[in-house]
Design a protein that fits this description.
Blueprint lengths: L6 E5 H11 L13 H16 L5 E4 L7 H5 L17 H11 L4 E2 L6 H14 L4 E4 L13 E5 L4 E3 L1 H8 L6 H8 L14 H11 L2 H6 L7 H9 L1 H11 L21 H11 L2 H11 L26 H10 L8 E2 L3 H14 L1 E8 L9 E9 L2 E6 L22 H13 L4 E4 L2 H9 L8 E3 H9 L7 H9 L6 H5 L13 H28 L3 H21 L1 E2 L2 H26 L8 H11 L17 H9 L3 H20 L6 E2 L4 E2 L2 E3 L9 E3 L11 H5 L10 E8 L2 H10 L2 H9 L3 H10 L8 H15 L4 H8 L3 H14 L1 H17 L1 E3 L5 E3 L8 H37 L5 E6 L2 E7 L3 H13 L10 E6 L2 H4 L1
Parallel strand pairs: 1-2, 1-4, 2-3, 4-5, 7-10, 8-11, 11-12
Antiparallel strand pairs: 5-6, 8-9, 9-10, 13-15, 14-15, 16-17, 18-22, 18-23, 19-20, 21-22
Helix pairs in contact: 1-2, 2-4, 7-8, 7-11, 12-13, 14-21, 15-16, 17-22, 18-21, 19-21, 22-35, 23-26, 25-26, 28-34, 28-35, 29-30, 30-31, 30-33, 32-33, 33-34, 34-35, 35-36
C-alpha cells in the first residue's frame, strides 16, 4: 500500500488501562455489563482518528501475559496483580469497538504488543513511510529514529531524541542497555543491584555499549559498581534480552493491507448506542450529519449511582445544558488597554455571575508572581488580562510596545478590585483557594464566590475526580488545552510568563469559560440532590480558612533537623554493625534480596517464603514475626529501617521545603483528596509524621514558634469512639463518656467482666485495640497480630465485644445494607460518601468496601466537625481580641501560633469553639497543650 500519510500504531493495551483508571465505573443499560473503560477507549480512539484523517492506523493489543520472555525468565511480570474483575469483560468489547471504528484489532500469541509495534515500525520505515507510535510506554522509546516518532497521548506531545536523552541520558538505540543495567521494577526485570538510571547512563556513555562495559567491567573505579557488574553479568545479559523488542515478529496483517479508518457509520452509531454512550453518539451524529438507529430492543437505561455519564439529568440541568453547552469555545480576547478592560468589567458587573482565574509563574501561591487574570461573563465569552509576560527575545513585557503606559499593574488592580469584592457579583472559580491567596497579595479579597471543584465534590464524591480537565471531558464533552501543551514538561518546561500571548490567551480564557459552564452544570444539582446545606455551611466557607492557613505556613528549625539527621545516621550505622555481627558477613542491609538470603539461606531462620520473583519476602510483617520469635537480627533490621525512613522522608527532605522568603514550610491542603471529607496534605505531607515512637515524635521538635510566641495544640479526644457511641446508640459507652470514665477501661470492664477497680494495664491495652480496631473493621487475624495472641482468642474477644454491645453490630450491618441499596453512606451533616465497589463480586474488594461503608460516616463526621470548628475559629479569636494564628490541621488536631501573653485565653477559647462545633448525645472534649515546639505542645 503506497501512502504519503504516516502509519499510526496505537498501543491498545495502554489505552485500555488509561481509560479504565480515568473514569468511574459505568454500566451498560439493560444488562449492567461494566463499560467504563470501553467508553474512555472509544472517546480516545475517536479523537485520534479525527486528528489523523486518511492515515493508515493499527490498534495493537497484548494477547496474554505469556510470551517468549516468560520462557526465558518465568518471573517476568509475574508480580503484577491480575486485571481488575470489572475490567476483564470489557476486553472483548473494546476489540469490538475497534472494529466498529473500521480498524483491525491486532494481537499475536507469544508476543507482546510492543513487539508487533516494533515490527510494523521497522517494516514501514523500510518502505519509506513515517511512523507515529501512540503510547506512553517508556520501552517504546527504543524505537525512535529518523522516521519514527513516539506520541505521548497523556501529554499530547511528540517524544523525540531530545526527550529520550532527557529521560535516559542516552540515545534511543542505547535505551535497552540502560534498562538492562538499571532493571525495571514494573516488568520485574532484575538488572544489576545498586545501579540506578543515572549510573547506568554514565556507564553506557563511558564504555559505548553494554557488551563493551561487561568486557571491561574490571576497569570500573568504584568498587560497588564494579562488583555489581562483575557478579551479575549473566543476569544483566538476561535483562537485555527481556527489554529488547523483537522487530521481526510475524505481522498479523500484511503491510499491503494497511487500513485507514472506514467505519460503517450506522454500525458504529448502533454499537455506541447499544453501550449507552449517548454523549458520544450525539457528537458523532453531528459530525456525520445523520442520526443513530433507534434500538427498540434496547431497554430503558437502568444505571447505578456510579454512572452519572449515562444517568438522566434533572430537568433544570438539562435545560441549562442545552443553552450553555452550545456556545463555541473562543475565540477569546486579549485585553491590551484600559478602555477594553473597563468594558469587560462593565460586562461582568452586568452579568452578575462570572468566572475568574489567575495565572502565575509557580504553584506556590504564597510567594508567586501573578502573570495574568482571565474572566468569563458567559459561555464562549471570556478574556485574558496579561500582567507580566516576558518576551523571550527582548526580555521585556511582551506588550510593552502596544500597551499604553497607563495599563500598569496598579491600574488593573484598581479596576478589578471593586468587581471582585462586589457583593452583587458572584465569582466562580475552580480550586479557588489558590486564586484567593494570589489576589490577597494584591489587597483583593474575593467575595462572594463559588468553587466548581467543591460543587463537584459535594454531589459526586467518590464517583470521579474533580479536576477541571476531567470534569470538562465528562460533563461538557470538551477536551481542554492542557498546561503541558503551553508550558511543556520536564527540562523543556517554561513558566507561564514566557508563554506567547496568543497561546496564553487561548489557554487561560478557556479555563474561565469551562469553569463558568461547569458552574451552570453543577449548581442546580445542590437543590435537586439536597446538598445545599453541606456546601453552604462547610465546604464553601472552609476555603478562605485553608487559604489563609497555607499562606501563613509553619516555622521549621533546620538546625534541629540537621541534628536529628546526624543522630539517626549514627543510630543507623550502629544497627548496621550489629546486624553484620549477628549475620557473620557483610551485605547491603537496604537490599531486600540480600537480606532474605542472609536470614533464610545463611542463618536458616524459619518462615522464609519466596515470591514470584524468586526472592525471599522481607517485609515488615515477616520481620516482625521473626522478632516476636526472639530473633534479634530481625528487630535490628526493623530499627534500622525506621531510622532510614525518618531520615529520608523528614530530616533530609523538610529543610528543602522551607521557603527562603518566609522561612516557613507551606504545605498544600487538598479539599477533595479523600472520600470522607478529611483534608489531606502534600508538598510536603505534614499529616503523616509518625507519633507512635519517640524517634518519630522527635521530628515535631523541629516545628517551632517564633520569638515571643508558643505553639498551642488542641486535639479532639477519642472523637470517633464518641461518634460510635452516638450513631450506634450504645448506652454503656454513652454513659461512660458523659461520666468522664476512661473509655478503654470501661470497655475492658464490660467485655472481660472485670470491675474498674481491678483493671490491669494489659486488659486496658487489649480493650483499646478492640475499640479502635472494631470501627476500622479489624479481623480476628489482625487483632491477634496486634495483641500478640492466638487468632482463636482474638476471635473470642470480638464475639464478646459484639455480645456486650449489640447496638454496634446492628449499626454495622444496617450501614452495609444501606450502602448496598443506595451506593453511598452519609455523615451526620449530610455528606455523601459514594462507595461504588460495595457491589463488587470479588469478595476481598467487597469486604474492603464494606469496611469503608462502616467507617466513612464516622471519619467523615469527624472531618465535618473539625471543619465547622475551623470556620468559626478566626471570627471567635478576632472578637476576643486575640492574635493567635492557625498554622496547621492534622486530622483531629489544630495547631496555633500564639503570643505568650495570650496563651491561656487562646487555649480556653479554642477549646470552647472546638467542643461546641457539634451537639451529640455524648460530650465533645478537646485537650490543649502549649510549648515552644510542636512535640512538647502535643
Amino acid at each position: 500500500m503506497a501512502t504519503h500519510k504516516p502509519l499510526i500504531l496505537v498501543d491498545g493495551s495502554g489505552f485500555i488501562f488509561r481509560a479504565y483508571h480515568a473514569l468511574p465505573p459505568l454500566s451498560r443499560p439493560g444488562d449492567g455489563t461494566p463499560v467504563g473503560a470501553v467508553y474512555g477507549f472509544c472517546a480516545m480512539l475517536h479523537r485520534l482518528i479525527a486528528a489523523h484523517v486518511g492515515s493508515p492506523m493499527l490498534v495493537i493489543f497484548d494477547v496474554s501475559r505469556k510470551s517468549f520472555r516468560t520462557e526465558l525468565y518465568p518471573a517476568y511480570k509475574a508480580h503484577r496483580p491480575p486485571a481488575p474483575e470489572d475490567l476483564v469483560p470489557q476486553f472483548p468489547i473494546i476489540r469490538e469497538a475497534v472494529r466498529a471504528f473500521g480498524l483491525p484489532a491486532l494481537e499475536l500469541e507469544n508476543y507482546e504488543a510492543d513487539d508487533l509495534i516494533a515490527s510494523y515500525a521497522r517494516a514501514a520505515v523500510e518502505r519509506g513511510m513515517e511512523v507515529h507510535i501512540v503510547s506512553s510506554d517508556k520501552d517504546l522509546m527504543q524505537l525512535i529514529r529518523p522516521g519514527v516518532t513516539l506520541v505521548d497521548p497523556l501529554k499530547n506531545k511528540d517524544i523525540g531524541l531530545a526527550e529520550v536523552a532527557d529521560k535516559f541520558g542516552v540515545p534511543p538505540d542505547k535505551v535497552g542497555d540502560v534498562l538492562a543495567l538499571m532493571g525495571d521494577s514494573s516488568d520485574n526485570v532484575p538488572g544489576a543491584p545498586g545501579i540506578g538510571p543515572k549510573t547506568a547512563a554514565e556507564l553506557i556513555n563511558t564504555y559505548g555499549d553494554l557488551e563493551t562495559l561487561l568486557a571491561r567491567a574490571h576497569e570500573i573505579k568504584q568498587p560497588k559498581r564494579r562488583e555489581s557488574i562483575i557478579n551479575n553479568t549473566d543476569i544483566i545479559r538476561l535483562s537485555r534480552k527481556l527489554v529488547a523488542l523483537d522487530e521481526h515478529a510475524p505481522l498479523p496483517l500484511p503491510m499491503d493491507e494497511l487500513p485507514s479508518p472506514h467505519p460503517d457509520n450506522s454500525g458504529l452509531l448502533g454499537f455506541l448506542q447499544y453501550q449507552g454512550f449517548r454523549s458520544l453518539v450525539s457528537k458523532i451524529e453531528k459530525e456525520l450529519g445523520q442520526t443513530a438507529p433507534v434500538l427498540t430492543n434496547n431497554p430503558v437505561p437502568s444505571v447505578s449511582v456510579a454512572t452519572p455519564e449515562l444517568a438522566e439529568a434533572p430537568p433544570a440541568l438539562s435545560r441549562l445544558s442545552e443553552v450553555h453547552l452550545a456556545a463555541a469555545y473562543g475565540p477569546y480576547e486579549c485585553v491590551q488597554d484600559l478602555p477594553t478592560l473597563q468594558r469587560w468589567v462593565a460586562r461582568a458587573q452586568a452579568a452578575g455571575v462570572i468566572a475568574v482565574d489567575t495565572e502565575t509563574n509557580s504553584l506556590t501561591p504564597c510567594t508567586t508572581t501573578m502573570v495574568g487574570i482571565s474572566l468569563a461573563v458567559a459561555p464562549g465569552q471570556a478574556c485574558y488580562i496579561p500582567l507580566a509576560h516576558v518576551s523571550a527575545a527582548a526580555g521585556e513585557l511582551a506588550l510593552a510596545a502596544d500597551r499604553p503606559p497607563q495599563l500598569a499593574l496598579a491600574d488593573i488592580v484598581s479596576a478589578l478590585k471593586p468587581l471582585l469584592e462586589d457583593p452583587a457579583v458572584l465569582k466562580v472559580g475552580q480550586n479557588l483557594k489558590f486564586d484567593l491567596q494570589v489576589f490577597a497579595q494584591h489587597g483583593i479579597h474575593v467575595s462572594p464566590f463559588d468553587d466548581t471543584m467543591l460543587l463537584s465534590y459535594v454531589v459526586d464524591n467518590g464517583l470521579h475526580g474533580h479536576g477541571m480537565d476531567e470534569l470538562s471531558e465528562k460533563f461538557l464533552d470538551h477536551k481542554t488545552i492542557l498546561y503541558a501543551d503551553v508550558c511543556g514538561s520536564g527540562k523543556s518546561q517554561i513558566t507561564f510568563d514566557q508563554v506567547p500571548l496568543d497561546q496564553a490567551t487561548a489557554y487561560a480564557a478557556e479555563d474561565a469559560d469551562v469553569t463558568l459552564r461547569l458552574w451552570h452544570s453543577f449548581k442546580p444539582r445542590l437543590v435537586a440532590e439536597r446538598m445545599t446545606t453541606l456546601y453552604e455551611t462547610i465546604e464553601r466557607p472552609i476555603v478562605p480558612v485553608i487559604a489563609q492557613m497555607e499562606s501563613t505556613g509553619v516555622m521549621v528549625d533546620p538546625g534541629v533537623l540537621r541534628q536529628l539527621s546526624q543522630i539517626f545516621a549514627i543510630r543507623m550505622n550502629a544497627f548496621e554493625r550489629e546486624v553484620m555481627a549477628l549475620a557473620g558477613c557483610e551485605f547491603n542491609i537496604g537490599s531486600p534480596k540480600q537480606l532474605g538470603e542472609v536470614l533464610f539461606d545463611k542463618l536458616g531462620l524459619p518462615g522464609g517464603e519466596k515470591g514470584k520473583t524468586g526472592a525471599y519476602s522481607t517485609g515488615a510483617e515477616v520481620l516482625e514475626g521473626l522478632a516476636e520469635q526472639g530473633h534479634a537480627i530481625a528487630q535490628k533490621v526493623l530499627e534500622w529501617r525506621m531510622f532510614a525512613k525518618l531520615r529520608s522522608t523528614y530530616t533530609e527532605a523538610l529543610p528543602q521545603a522551607i521557603d527562603p522568603r518566609t522561612g516557613r514550610v507551606h504545605t498544600a491542603f487538598s479539599l477533595v483528596g479523600t472520600t470522607t471529607g478529611r483534608l489531606s496534605s502534600s508538598d510536603p505531607n505534614l499529616q503523616n509524621i509518625p507519633i507512635r515512637t519517640e524517634e518519630g515524635r522527635s521530628i515535631r521538635r523541629a516545628f517551632v514558634a517564633p520569638v515571643g510566641h508558643q505553639l498551642l495544640s488542641v486535639d479532639y479526644s477519642q472523637i470517633e469512639l464518641r461518634l460510635v457511641a452516638h450513631v450506634a446508640g450504645i448506652p454503656a459507652l454513652k454513659q461512660a463518656f458523659v461520666d468522664g470514665i476512661d473509655i478503654h477501661a470501661k470497655t475492658a470492664s464490660e467485655v472481660f467482666g472485670v470491675p474498674l477497680a481491678e483493671m490491669t494495664p494489659e486488659l486496658r491495652r487489649r480493650a483499646k485495640a478492640i475499640n479502635f480496631g472494631i470501627i476500622y473493621g479489624i479481623s480476628a487475624f489482625g487483632l491477634a497480630r496486634q495483641l500478640g495472641i492466638a487468632q482463636g482468642e482474638a476471635s473470642e474477644y470480638i464475639k464478646l465485644y459484639f455480645a456486650r454491645f449489640p447496638e454496634l453490630k446492628a449499626y454495622m450491618e444496617s450501614t452495609k445494607e444501606l450502602c448496598r441499596a443506595q451506593g453511598y453512606v452519609e455523615t451526620l451533616f449530610g455528606r455523601r460518601c459514594h462507595i461504588p465497589s460495595i457491589a463488587e463480586k470479588n469478595p476481598a474488594r467487597r469486604a474492603f468496601a464494606e469496611r469503608q461503608a462502616i467507617n466513612a460516616p464516622l471519619q467523615g463526621t469527624a472531618a465535618d466537625i473539625i471543619k465547622r470548628a475551623m470556620i468559626r475559629m478566626n471570627p471567635a479569636l478576632q472578637a476576643a481580641g486575640l492574635s493567635a494564628r492557625m498554622v496547621l490541621q492534622v486530622h483531629d488536631e489544630l495547631l496555633f501560633e500564639v503570643p505568650e501573653a495570650q496563651l491561656q485565653a487562646a487555649a480556653a477559647l479554642v477549646k470552647q469553639v472546638m467542643e461546641g462545633a457539634a451537639t451529640l448525645s455524648v460530650p465533645l472534649t478537646a485537650e490543649a497543650g502549649m510549648a515552644a515546639n510542636w512535640a512538647d505542645a502535643h
